[in-house]
Amino acid sequence: MKIDEETRLKLLPYQRNEITEQKIYTRLAQAAASPPNRQVLLRIAEEERQHYDFWKTYTGQDVAPDGFKVWKYYLISRFLGFTFGAKLMENGEGDAQVNYTGLREVIPDVESLVEAENRHENSLIELLDEEALRYTGSVVLGLNDALVELAGVLTGLTFALQDTRLIALTGSITGVAAALSMAASEYLSTKAEGRTQDASRAALYTGVAYIITVTLMILPYLLVPNLYVCLALALAAALAIIAAFNYYIAVVKDLDFKARFLEMALLSFGVAGLTFLIGLGIRLLLGVNV
User: Among 190, 157, 195, 156, which residue's Cα sits nearest to residue 274?
Assistant: First the structure.
């Protein structure tokens, strides 16, 4: 189809994006252990190939994929899950594909066509079945409890004990005990819901999420001598964990990141502030000076 050179140059980035995503989905399909997931990824890859061919009918030339982008999203998807990688990639391209001003005269149905294609791709992505996403509730339980409890405990201990090693020891014992308790509770809770086969994995995800959070928040007290710098780093670690986890969930489940992040952060730091006041009050009341 004949188009002017200016329009043709506008279409080339769209065409390159389609072949890039086709390569990404093909590589992910080759790496997928689950046959159903592999089939879904291959279907998406085929659709990207069709989109590439659609733009090629107007540009009249082949274009090479973006090698850096292929490896970037391939590695993200391998480490953080196919669903996260696919949705992160599609969300990133959303802004680039919303403006088709100047193309309507050449391709009258371009906007509705691309919107329909994107909706179909998103519906296919929703078919991906990943184990980690089935236990999101268990991870949330472990993270929430660890963040709220450890933020409060470390803040209280910092002002009550005034010794980094002692705080690290006390916080570690408290954290490990709480992690085992939460894992056991999640096991019994999941089993009571009739999901006996899922109980062990649910407990594992809860316990691991808890232990990772405890480790990251205790670490400053083992590495930094200044008491208050340790507390600041521990709370910063808590904030980073909250941000990273909620961003992941927001991308995977198409949720509002800001609202979830603020809710979890306010809860965790609210408890930390309250525990600080309690710890300071008890220290003054008992006259403890460690």
Answer: 156
Report residue 269 as tokens: 């730091």
* Residue range 62-102, pLDDT digits in tens: 999 999 999 999 998 888 888 888 888 877 655 445 455 55
Alpha helices in 32-126 (DSSP H): 35-59, 67-80, 82-94, 110-125
Q: Where are the domains of the chain?
A: 5-129, 132-286
Query: What's the alpha-carbon Rg for the chain, to the nearest Å?
Result: 25
Q: Tokens standing for 229?
A: 């710098």
Q: How far is CA 208 from CA 153, 172, 215, in A?
A: 19, 14, 10
**Please, what sign has the CA dihedral across residues 183, 241, 153, 288?**
positive
Residue closest to 148 by CA, chosen among 257, 272, 61, 26 = 272
d(CA 114, CA 120): 10
Q: Taking residues 108-129, report their average pLDDT.
A: 68
Distances from the Cα of 2 to the Cαs of 53, 155, 263, in angstroms? 15, 69, 54
3-state DSSP: the chain helix, strand, coil percent, rounded to 5? 85, 0, 15
CA quadruple 280, 284, 288, 289: dihedral, nearest 10: 80
Look at residue 178 and tell me whether its pLDDT is greater than 70: yes
- Quote the distance between the C-alpha of residue 22 and its chain's center: 23
Q: Which amino acid is at 175?
A: G
Distances in Å between the alpha carbon of 281 and those of 98, 167, 200?
A: 57, 18, 41
Cα-based distances in Å from 188 to 176, 185, 196, 206, 278: 19, 5, 9, 12, 32
Give the C-alpha separation, 190 to 274, whole Å: 32
